[in-house]
Amino acid sequence: MRALTFGDVIDDVLVFPDGRIRPDTDTDAQIVRRPGGSAANTAAWMAAAGVQTTFVGRVGAFDVARHTALLSEVGVDARIVGDPDHETGTIVVLVDRDERTMLTDRGANAFVDPDEIGDALLGAVDVVHVTGYSLLSGHAEAVGRLVDRAHALGTKVSCTIGSAGSISDLGVDVALDALHGADILVANLDEGAMITGKQGAAAIGAALADLAPVVALTLGHTGVVVIDRGARQFVPSIPAQLVDPTGAGDAFTATFVAHVVGGVDPVNAARRGVEMAAIAVSVRGARPAPAAHAAAA
Prior knowledge:
Elements: E1 2-7, E2 10-17, E3 29-36, H1 38-48, E4 52-60, H2 64-72, E5 76-83, E6 89-96, E7 99-105, H3 119-122, E8 127-131, H4 140-152, E9 156-160, H5 164-170, H6 172-178, E10 184-188, H7 189-196, H8 201-208, E11 214-218, E12 223-228, E13 231-236, H9 248-261, H10 266-281, H11 290-296
Parallel strand pairs: 1-4, 1-8, 2-6, 4-5, 8-9, 9-10, 10-11
Antiparallel strand pairs: 2-3, 6-7, 11-12, 12-13
Helix pairs in contact: 1-9, 4-6, 7-8, 9-10
Keywords: Kinase, Transferase
InterPro entries: PfkB_dom (IPR011611), Ribokinase-like (IPR029056)
Protein name: Sugar or nucleoside kinase, ribokinase family
């Protein structure tokens, strides 16, 4: 099986304050720098799940070799373009137990154009994964064209809604138009409520099921609701030592999508997804360690 993800690749600056943040003075904190970006993270976790994965993205010109190497060492075929005019995207993530506050500079990510992904690559994979971040910066119509091209070539499309705040700013109708016809849809509770206008997992899940035949509605540390062509089932999460929730959603999504496209029924695919998410929250950073890829291989 082969997969393609494209879009955001980020330098994460993870901040773990030692107590309450005090304004206008110092607060002791542990600060960790890690590679990130939802699309790149998803590619890394797909590779960890044993999928041949290609990632297409854009960083500042001086960072091409570094980010290519970081993805290559976890088994991803990284096709990264250097932007001569814009720096690599950066996110400062303030981590407070299972909650995160993110300050985002998309940088070169804003110039990843879905129209530049050729049909030869799109038709050579089994699934192309789209994140909601790829819709930003005026690319929503191009993403819609990519979804149509993928389907015309016989390639499945999976998508995650991404940041509820960003999609709200973009416009829900714009996002839904771009992602029409997705085969697999993953959203968390806040994202699901935002794009459906519903409240409560049951109502949100039912509305999401009108958008895609296979849906995973993630409920944080509780678990996930899986809807497979109208049939609904809850899959509980797995207890794990919470170190850093960054990347847990990408780990679940990558594993869930990989197994569904690979022929596993969605409920069992979700079970494998929550297992991978439990691994993700137990370490700092949003991607698997290179050893995880070696074990999968």
